[in-house]
Design a protein that fits this description.
The chain has eight helices and no strands. It is an all-alpha fold and 160 residues long. The radius of gyration is 15 Å and the shape is globular.
Length: 160
């Protein structure tokens, strides 16, 4: 169920005591945490997966955030053979190696959620991915991420 020494993360520790509402939401914080670790997995070719528990303990202090992030990270990483062809197909004219690793990690997480997390609405998955792109990537990234995920969602809907 989807509800449940490492390189420095993209950003500092995600804390449950931040003042803005998005950061205090454990699901949003779990997405940020998952993005950070998935980025590291991609950068290190999966060699640091065994350090996931240490990473989560160090960079988040909310049990729900830890549980969700762990589920999403492991699920995403184990599902790359299903996820990457969808991204490749939807990102026409882009070779996967040219996609920014942060954007790729963000889209992989979102596609995993579209495939496996039926308890999360499609709109929420895509909106959260766009927000992460705004926060962690280039000014062009939100539009790119939105376009790719929208295309994937339409394809998944046709196949259901």
């Amino acid at each position: 169920m989807c509800s449940k020494s490492v390189k420095q993360p993209i950003r500092s520790k995600i804390s449950s005591d931040k003042s803005d509402a998005a950061s205090t939401d454990p699901r949003h914080a779990a997405r940020e945490t998952a993005l950070q670790f998935l980025y590291q997995l991609e950068s290190q070719r999966g060699e640091n997966l065994e350090m996931l528990e240490d990473f989560l303990t160090e960079y988040t202090d909310n049990d729900k955030t830890k549980s969700l992030a762990e589920t999403w990270i492991q699920g995403t990483w184990r599902s790359l053979e299903r996820i990457d062809p969808l991204i490749r197909s939807a990102s026409r004219n882009w070779d996967m190696s040219r996609i920014n690793q942060v954007d790729l990690s963000n889209m992989r997480l979102a596609v995993y959620q579209l495939l496996e997390c039926r308890d999360i609405s499609v709109k929420v998955v895509i909106n959260e991915a766009i927000e992460l792109a705004k926060q962690y990537s280039t000014t062009e990234a939100p539009g790119f991420v939105n376009g790719v995920l929208d295309s994937i969602q339409k394809e998944l809907s046709k196949n259901e």
